[in-house]
Every structure is written in structure tokens, then in C-alpha cells.
Amino acid sequence: MGYKTVVEDNIDILVAGAGLGGTGAAFEARYWGQDKKIVIAEKANIDRSGAVAQGLYAINCYMGTRFGENNPEDHVRYARIDLMGMVREDLLFDMARHVDSAVHQFEEWGLPLMRDPKTGAYQREGRWQIMIHGESYKPIVAEAAKKSADKVYNRICVTHLLMDESKENRVAGAIGFNVRTGDCHVFKSKAVIVGAGGASNIYKPRSVGEGAGRVWYAPWSSGSAYGLLIGAGAKMTQMENRIVLARFKDGYGPVGAYFLHLKTYTQNAYGEEYESKWFPELQKMVGKEYLDPEASHRTHRPIPTCLRNHALINEVNAGRGPIHMVTMEAFQDPHLEEIGWHNFLGMTVGQAVLWAATDVDPKNENPELTTSEPYVMGSHATGCGAWCSGPEDVSPDEYFWGYNRMTTVEGLFGAGDAVGGTPHAFSSGSFTEGRLAAKAACKYIDDGKAEGIKVSDKQINDRKKEIYKPMEHYKIYRNEITAGTVNPNYINPRQGLDRLQKLMDEYCGGVTVNYMTNDKLLNIGLKKMKILEEDLEKIAAENVHELLRAWELKHRHMTAEAVFQHTLFRKETRWPGYYYRGDAMKVDDENWHVLTVSRRDPKTGEYTMEKAPCYHLVGDDE
Amino acid sequence: MPTFVYMTRCDGCGHCVDICPSDIMHIDKVTRRAYNIEPNMCWECYSCVKACPMNAIDVRGYADFAPLGHSVRVKRDEEKGVIAWRIKFRNGKKDMDLLAPITTKPWGKFIPKLSEVQGPTQEQRDSQLLFNEPKYIRMDDGGLHTLESNGLKMKAGVYY
């Protein structure tokens, strides 16, 4: 192919993917490892990469302990009820007790955080959310990461982790290619922190054509967090816990500030409140422990996000759609109107474009809401990700194996979407997880755990062959046909993505089947996934850009397979409104009050599934 | 909404190519100007629009649900630390100017270089504290929250 191989050797800490988790990791690693070599490999440009590339108008995870607002355990209780009990409370507690220090540092660095003029505390949007002018959130944290790192490699698509050949199940670095030059990049490293992203675009989107880019989570979030970790044989958890978002229709503009700060509310097409009437029946499905509107009314306990989705979905199916967000009251106040628009410009510009294009002025009409296609990620109201160790002073034995945020592969750490069981981390929590992982990774190295790592040329050469195979394949078969994209010997990345999306949609609870699946559908789907995997060996890339798309698709496929396996394993409907198991339509706490843990054998591709105990924080007051 | 590039304004400098998170702003080999090679992988994040020194990049709403005739333009100024937006509706009835700060400090000046600060002690290494902590993590002078300090236990099973 004529591409160079660039080897970066003797790295101590490699950060693979520098969104909020990765930038936190790189920044903090320098403090605990002032003598260490810290390198970042980022698929795009670190100044505008990851889910926060276009900015944020809120920081959704801030305790305000300093202002006497919340304690870490309050946040744990909030996240666990929102996720119907299925969280890693040790990791949540640990993140929550540190997150404020990250947020206060952001302010010191120049991020404009709004203040409440009366109290002097940060301007609250809701109990956990604070309001910011965050257009430059990402460039600011990127600056911090750049100051700490020895080297930042932009435009590197990391395809695989490298494994140590002297000791089983130990990481040794990563390999990938530059999406512009095509050169192969080898990173030999003692520890790796995966800060890559969750997955958009694995389910068929509601939009067609161009609009397929207007996904809720960024289109460049290719599930690489999971593709890399699963590929290395790390155990994963809660991969069935995909998320469906109730958002403004088509633009998927955020609703948090609207509900919490602007005090807008929803109603059906006929102007009626609809949520509460679905709750009695839903309560029979999930039990009073999870849905108790009265208790929620009295206390700060939220109605779980998935259950509110359930009400919306059912109301629409009953023929009383669309659901509207009632903005016409709040938007009469010019100050609130301005906030409503700023909210979009700061994080989802496309929603502003859409309202301008369709002449929707929320002052004069109530915009439509809808539920999105499912997404697989681990830092919003969902907790997919790797099975990681917690901190030693909090975690019970089953959750602890030496180093905070280390996966079940030695020396391989996670942050943000990569870590499972830690929903509601959002931007600040992901950054905090990166910091925690970095400190632990430094300790791992200082403890001598990374001595004697060996990576043979053979391993590198084998991976290299694999990386460029789609381009070789294209070269071999392209001239068999006259022109066009229809070829009996290959599919291109877009064609492969279309197949994956259709398959996930129809067999694994996507939007066209109203989020419904069952054991039969899942088994058929899994068979089709295996055949798709065979076809992905015949994927063709015309150029380096398509090679990027080919590898993103492979990571998405790996993620999707894990979603299938986990969804099949958990025989209950734990999160109505996210997905339904038609053959087990109830929450089943007797059998399934557990976390699901999987491992894909990297040699055979076989999955093994197990249950892990769910530990809860129990306080004096309970 | 997918970006496009005005022929008469683009000088092919490549700032958009450099910044695009989705790797879809490329330089056309014939015209030597930038264009969006894959509109259905565009998140309308406006990173390229903000980065363009010629104001040559704009956005036209996704063809599958956004009618023509609208405009959302932006000017981001790092020196002044502000971003200015203008939103124009298709029917011409709404035309808004919105201004927001993007930073409160000169770029990067207040971010510490951690290779140059006093390094951690062994005691700090053995603790659960991160850089700069326990500053900001609680109201009193106490240390980090622990299960013990907060009167908590971890217990397996169904307990709330």
C-alpha cells in the first residue's frame, strides 16, 4: 500500500480517545506521573472531538457539596432509581465525591459558569444540573490535556489494542491508522486508558437520507469504546441497557433545560396531561418500588426516564399523538425565551436550524416531541460499558481487583462511556472518571505491574494486514465490475451500516417495532449478526476515509453483538420505554436484580454470560 | 444540518478540514476548495463554520425534513471571548441576534502545567485524593467523603 509505519515506543500511559473522559485522564496523569510519558491518540482533532464537540449549555452532574446542596450518596440514590436499580453504586459514589473539584477547576480555567445572583452558588437548572455558557467547553479541556501530554496524535483511528505476549490478559498498547495520510501508527504502552465513545447509528434512525446525521449522540461516536475493549477480551456489563431519548422531533434538541428551568411540560395532541394515566398499569409491570408517583411527588425521587418514555410511546400508540412540549407560556417571558434559544445554540445548533426552517416559534406554538432510536452508551441515563474495578475504600470484593477503573484486562483502564454501570456521569463525571483512571494507571506502573511487556513484530504485522484488508479487497475486486457500488464480492461501509441498522431495528427492539423484541427474534438476529460478521471480512474501502468508516462499522458491529447477547440473557423487561422483552414483560427482581456481565473470547468469538451481584449503599436513615 | 461551502468565498485554506470531528470536510482536487463529502454523517456541529476565516461555510437544513429559506449564522471571537448568532426564519417573521460568552479568561493562561507544580507526596499517592483536592469537594475542612464518614454500607441484594 505504500503507507509508512510510525512507532511510538516506551509510552507509559496511552489515552485512546480524547473526549471528556480522555482529556481528564491525560490532564491528571501528569500530576501523578510527572516523569511519565503520556501520549494521546485521537480520531479527530482534540479541540473539537467527542460528544461535547459543539459545546454544552449545562453541566448535568454537579453535587454542590461546597454550597451544602447534595452529598455523593444523594446522587447515587438518584441514579439508581432512574436506572431501575441496575448501577454500580461504588463507582457512582466515587465519581460523585470527586466531581465538584473538576467543575470548579473548569471555572478557574475560564469556562463561563452561571451564578445564582442571590446565593452566589452556581445557577441550578435542576437538582443536579448547573447552567453554563459552554460553547468552548471542549477547546478549554483540550487545552488542559495538551498541556499535560507529551504528544497528541490527532486523526488516528485506533482499531485494536495490542496485547502483551509475555503475560496473558495484559495490555501492551494500541494500533491504528492516520485517517488522512493512511500511515499505520503503533503505540507501545505500559497502560492504556480507553476514553473512546459510545455508539450512535447502530439502530436504524427515524430520519432518512441526509437527516441520518442528525442523530442524538454524535455520528462519530462509533462504539469504539466497546469495540476496542470487547476485542481485547475485557468483560462488559449492562450492554442491554440501551437508551431511548424523548426529544424535540427531528432535531433531537435537548429538553432538560426546558423541563427543569423553563418549567415547560408535555401534553398530548388534544391538550391533555397523559403521563399519569399510564402509571397504574405500568406499576403492575415494574412494581411500586420503581414507580411510586406519590412518593415522587413528595420527595426529590424522580420517575425513571424509561418509564416516562413508556407513557409517551403508549399515548402515541393509542392515537393521541403527537406529544407537545408546552412552551407558549414560558416563552412569553423574553428572558426565558432567550435561554430557550441559547440552550440549542450552545449544544444542538441543528434544532435552531430546524425551527428556523419550519417557522416554529415556541412562543406561538408548542413544538412536537418524539422518542428517538436507541443508543448504546454509558454516561447519560444509561450504563453500558466495561466491568471495571472500583476504589478500594468503597468497593466490595466482587467489585475490586486492585486498580480503580481498571477493566478485567490488566493495565487497561476506562473512562466515560467505556466504564459500565455508571450512568449520569455526563461531561463532568466522565472527565472525573478519566482523572481517577489516570491516578490508578500511574500507580499500576509504579507498582511494577507493567514490567517485561513484549509485543512481537508478528503481532504488529498481523494487525497491519487486518487494518488495510478493506483497501486490498477493494483493489482486487473493483475492476470486476464496470462502475458503481454493486459488487458480488464486497459491500462498502455504508451498505454494511444500513444492514446493521436494519437488523438491530427489527430484531433487537428498534423504533419501527416500538422497541419490542423477544427470545426468538434475538436468536434470529444473532444468526444474522454472525453472517454480517462474515461479510464484514469482505468489506471494501475505496480510500482512507472509507477505511475509517469500515473500522467504525466493525466497532459498531462488535458493540451491537454485545447488545444482542445481553438482551437475550436478561430475561425480563427491566426498562419499559427503553425496550421490551415480549416473552417476559415484567421486572423480575427475584431472578434479575443483578448486573449482567459478558466476555467474548477474542480467539473464538464465543460469548459467556454471568450474573454479578448488585450492591446498594444503605445509609443510617434507611 | 449539512454544511456547504460558497465557491466565491472559499480559498481552500483547510481550517475546516483540520477541525471537522466527522472527517467529512475535504478539499476538492479540481476546484481546490473545501466541500462536505458525506452530508449524512454531518452533525451540524458548526465546528467548521466557526473555524472558517472566510465565512465561506454555511448550513442548509437536512433535505428530508427542513424546508429551504432559513439561516443560522455564527461568528466566534476567541480574543473577545464571545460568540454571536443570528437566526432568520423561513417566513422572515423572526430575526434574532444572540450573544454569549465563550470564556471568562485569556485562552489557556489559567490552566496549570502539572509537570511544573509541586508533585504529590507519598501520603497523597496512598490516599483517594486527586490533584488539588480536597479543595472544593466539601463545605467544611473535612477530607473526601467515604462510606464511613457518611455512615454508609454496601449491601448486596434488593435494598432501597
C-alpha Rg of chain A (nearest Å): 23 Å
What is the 3D shape of chain B?
elongated
Helix content of chain B: under 10%
Total beta strand runs of chain A: 20
Unreliable runs of chain B, pLDDT <50, ≥5 residues? none
Q: Give the uncertain stretches of chain A in residue-range form.
A: none
Oligomerization: heterodimer
Beta-strand content bin of chain A? 15-25%
CATH topology group of the largest domain in chain B: Alpha-Beta Plaits
Provide the gyration radius of chain B in Å. 25 Å
Major beta sheet of chain A, specifics? 7 strands, mixed
Instruction: Tell me the span between the first and last alpha carbons of chain A.
Output: 65 Å
What is the overall shape of chain A? globular
Q: Which architecture name of the largest domain in chain B does CATH use?
A: 2-Layer Sandwich
Overview of this protein structure:
The complex is a heterodimer of chains A (622) and B (160). Chain A has 622 residues and is of the alpha/beta class. Chain A contains 17 helices and 20 strands. In chain A, a hairpin with a 7-residue loop joins β6 and β7. In chain A, α5 packs across α16 and α14 packs antiparallel against α15. The longest helix of chain A is centred in the last third of the chain and has 26 residues. The model of chain A has no long low-confidence stretch (mean pLDDT 96). With 160 residues, chain B is mainly beta. Chain B is 9% helix and 24% strand. Chain B contains 3 helices and 8 strands, in the order βαββαββββαβ. In chain B, β2 and β3 form a beta hairpin. Chains A and B meet through α1, α2, α3, α4 and α10 of A and β5, β6, β7 and β8 of B.
Considering the chains and any ligands shown, give keywords for the structure:
heterodimer, A: 622 residues, alpha/beta, FAD/NAD(P)-binding domain, 2 domains, 4-stranded antiparallel sheet, globular, B: 160 residues, mainly beta, Alpha-Beta Plaits, 3 domains, 3-stranded antiparallel sheet, two-stranded antiparallel sheet
